[in-house]
Amino acid sequence: xxxxxxxxxxxxxxxxxxxxxxxxxxxxxxxxxxxxxxxxxxxxxxxxxxxxxxxxxxxxxxxxxxxxxxxxxxxxxxxxxxxxxxxxxxxxxxxxxxxxxxxxxxxxxxxxxxxxxxxxxx
Length: 122
Fold this sequence. Notes:
The chain is an all-beta fold. Helices cover 0% and strands 58% of the residues. It has strands spanning 2-7, 10-13, 18-26, 30-39, 46-52, 57-59, 67-72, 77-82, 91-100, 109-112, 116-121. The model has no long low-confidence stretch (mean pLDDT 95).
């Protein structure tokens, strides 16, 4: 069984910063990619940023230059540094991992965290 444990959400004023962490644990053979998605009320879940095991990162256009995603492979943990936050960044942020649970797994599977609320006030 795989668990993704998120931390670091909260409330901040516009222009402020928050740092989210997500640690993957359990039956993990290898992790291909980890990242963050978010979902605002009444909207679809959208990509925030993702990082591969090789360190390649991809950001949504609206987060480029403000958010930084990093990864500690030894700890199976990713960190999302969010700066210059805007009210429109308010959402539930979900950690995601694409991984192979065991050496004989037929493929990679998608796992999600429980979500952490980020609220940015104007």
